Amino acid sequence: MTETVGTTSEESDSAAPRRGLTIERVHTTPGVHPYDEVAWERRDVVMTNWRDGSVNFEQRGVEFPQAWSLNAVNIVTSKYFRGALGTDGRESSLRQLIDRVVDTYTEAGRRHGYFATPADAEVFSHELAWMLLHQYFSFNSPVWFNVGTTSPQQVSACFILSVDDTMESILNWYREEGLIFKGGSGAGLNLSRIRSSKELLSSGGTASGPVSFMRGADASAGTIKSGGATRRAAKMVVLDVDHPDVAAFVATKRDEERKIRVLRDAGFDMDLGGTDITSVQYQNANNSVRVSDEFMRAVQSGTEFGLRSRTTGEVIDTVDATALFQEMAEAAWECADPGLQYDDTINDWHTSPESGRITASNPCSEYLHLDNSSCNLASLNLMKFLGDDGAFRVEDFVRSVELVITAMDISICFADFPTQAIGDTTRAFRQLGIGYANLGALLMATGHAYDSEGGRALAASITSLMTGTAYRRSAELAGAVAPYDGYARNADAHRRVMRKHAAANDAIRTLHREDARIRDAATHEWQRGLEVGGRDGWRNAQASVLAPTGTIGFMMDCDTTGVEPDFSLVKFKKLVGGGSMQIVNQTVPRALEALGYPAETSEAIVEYIAEHGHVVDAPGLRPEHYEVFDCAMGQRSIAPMGHVRMMAAVQPFISGAISKTVNMPEQATVADVEEIYFESWKMGLKALAIYRDNCKVGQPLSTGKAGGTTAEKTTGDGGAAVAQDHRPVRKRLPKKRPSETVSFTVAGAEGYMTAGSYPDDGLGEIFVKMSKQGSTLAGVMDAFSMAISIALQYGVPLETYVSKFVNMRFEPAGMTDDPDVRMATSVVDYLFRRIALDHLPYEKRAQLGIFSADERSAQVATTDYGAAAAAPAAPAAEPVDVESLRTSVDVSTSEPGESPRERRADVSVGSSTELLELQQGKAADAPLCLTCGTKMRPAGSCYVCEGCGSTSGCS
């Protein structure tokens, strides 16, 4: 294990002695160990696969504080405890886990001169243990996996590699990625140094181009993923927009997505984790195009843009910039890739430009720095700093940031790295990534709407305070230990970026006394940091990022991850002894109190949310407060641009970037994607990705609204309940009935549909004609029409058919001539969208996500894609009846402290995502966990499993 020394070679000749740090107590009591102030208990952890009931993990008698939730206990025990199960060497207490990590950090701090006295080392140890014990922060997962064990002491989750235009370098790229994936981490790199397929080799042949080499790397990642790693191989592939192969790069995943549709429709298992998904390529990486200001200005002006040779730098081809930008948006609309990274913005905030440009990112796009480097992360739980009076505890937050940054920097002294180059760069630049979780919960609890000026002002102020404090402590560490090795060469650039951060802080437009108070504290920290750093330099080239905080978010019992808003107003709670419960998020009552509602009104509102899953028409809740309770999903979902505005508010106060995917509704257009990508550049974001609902084939299809039925009973003359025969009875259409014929075209295939109705206007039959009479297609469509018609006459609800047949994918698929249904994934998809528009009421279609062109226009105009009231002319949607999904709480079986707003969830529900699906009556685009079968929920640009804590990314 390679270690650094207390002073760098650049500082060894300095006459100024290094003095170590004085650590002050904030949370702990002298003479009392933090463990002695907590009530402990023993619990049994038994985790099962949600789908088949098999036991995935079992460890009984583990010791945790009583205050920790069952979910946090399960995930920490199964993910982070080390040692073979069933042996004495297996960790069985949170004390052992925290001691293993904290003792390693404290000892390394002693050895490398971080503490002024032994007493300071003890205070550091106690304070760090206290914060971890009380869920104030968490290190990223590799720390818990590796530190203090016999394994390599890898502390970083994020890596950036590099590849040059030689076969040796390309093969080394495959090897290095494999080693990183084997350890459960992720990596990103930029392939733009590899010459394009339009250039010649030195031998005279034509180069293969980077896209061809991506196939080999993708296959390698897929093999390691299926070889038993704790999570899938996470990777990012970046290509510069001026690379001659950029169009082929943009099309890679879009073309493969089309192949997936064809194979799926042919009967192959193409779901995420399916047996046949490995037959398609490029599925193991996130793709991003690195766009320049020059390119974006060419898009803005509609001019041509030059593509440059990788070997000479000369322009060898030109493209229409607007057309290329549209191709990127269309590909992202169709398959969610590529994302964009804004090159000039990224490098304008680069503290070490003399040592090289920033060309790539980690897989989740929050870590951006030099090639062959890494970043270790830690995240603070913002809700822990919210006082009972609703005020943010600024002093506690500042002291906590100081301690966490100190610990993170110490880790680089003893850390191991997967390659020599990564180790050398990381030790030389000491990149750190402090961040936070629970921002969405904090905003709601303080009565701020996520998409509001007040919410953004508060978020920006807290983020500025965090990074300002981190850099001020970094400057103090430089004085106490030494600046980073690369600082002397980059001193002017580093100071310039610090001034940019400070200037952005001064530009925060505060709206309330609270965010002004926090902003003023941040101003003080930036001023102190500039003063100390100007004298002693800085210890770290980077200090902060905003990571997904998936698994560690569960460890801290956070309601929201990273910079995300609340996922939904109701969530899933596991119960000790088995079973689960639907509860209203605990931030809702705090928000109602902050907004001034009396207790009895708040209770009625919470009851309504428990019943309906949203706040629309909640008794006593003023409509102007609805926005406070807007979430990522549900009846009132935050508009895509609302997410972008929040990212833009906090980006100037982050050293790196933000892991976040902007979710867009299914009815969003390519033009909407273009607007998101273009406005993100104008707002100063560093990186962005979008995801449009239902754009991916490899996602679980909707199962429709659950609602098991029971045999009805009637009362006879004697009052006894008599069971009735409920076999369906066919209700035939009258001889003369109203009908309507629609002609249509799907991807050039023409057809006609005639829909016949009962006199009371209920659909009773359909006839579909395509191709010539006597052909196979015509016969199949006739049979299909008759089957649907007879079933309708036997009483099968039309909405059931619509929920099953929309999004069915097979050829022909593409553009239609119907203004209300511009794109169809198949003829059947088009037919049932058209039928729904003609024969289902608005509230039913709203639940299914099917709207007319006018309704979509109204939604865009109001910038609220999720609200049922988006179309003013349409009647308000009735609440979805979810009583069939749960039973009333029985006091005898309630958990301690369970209130009437907490309801037992139906056994068919395994996560908050599935609960939300049942309330809305439509599927959410989220993969199933490959470990326990639970449907995951978004966490930054990744997904996280509420059942076992597994993530789909690298953090």
Automatic annotation (TrEMBL):
Transmembrane segments: none annotated. Residues 885-896 have a biased composition (Polar residues). Residues 1-22, 702-737, 879-912 are annotated as: Disordered. Residues 156-691 form the Ribonucleotide reductase large subunit C-terminal domain. Its cofactor is adenosylcob(III)alamin. InterPro entries: RdRp_reductase_class-2, RNR_2_N, RNR_lg_C, RNR_NrdJ/NrdZ, TSCPD_dom. Keywords: Cobalamin, Cobalt, Disulfide bond, DNA synthesis, Nucleotide-binding, Oxidoreductase. It comes from the Bacteria. Its EC number is 1.17.4.1. GO terms for molecular function: cobalamin binding; cobalt ion binding; nucleotide binding; ribonucleoside-diphosphate reductase activity, thioredoxin disulfide as acceptor. One of its GO terms (biological process) is DNA biosynthetic process. Residues 734-837 form the TSCPD domain. It catalyses: a 2'-deoxyribonucleoside 5'-diphosphate + [thioredoxin]-disulfide + H2O = a ribonucleoside 5'-diphosphate + [thioredoxin]-dithiol. Residues 45-135 form the Ribonucleotide reductase class II vitamin B12-dependent N-terminal domain. Belongs to the ribonucleoside diphosphate reductase class-2 family. Catalyzes the reduction of ribonucleotides to deoxyribonucleotides. May function to provide a pool of deoxyribonucleotide precursors for DNA repair during oxygen limitation and/or for immediate growth after restoration of oxygen. PANTHER family: RIBONUCLEOSIDE-DIPHOSPHATE REDUCTASE (PTHR43371:SF1), VITAMIN B12-DEPENDENT RIBONUCLEOTIDE REDUCTASE (PTHR43371). This is Vitamin B12-dependent ribonucleotide reductase.
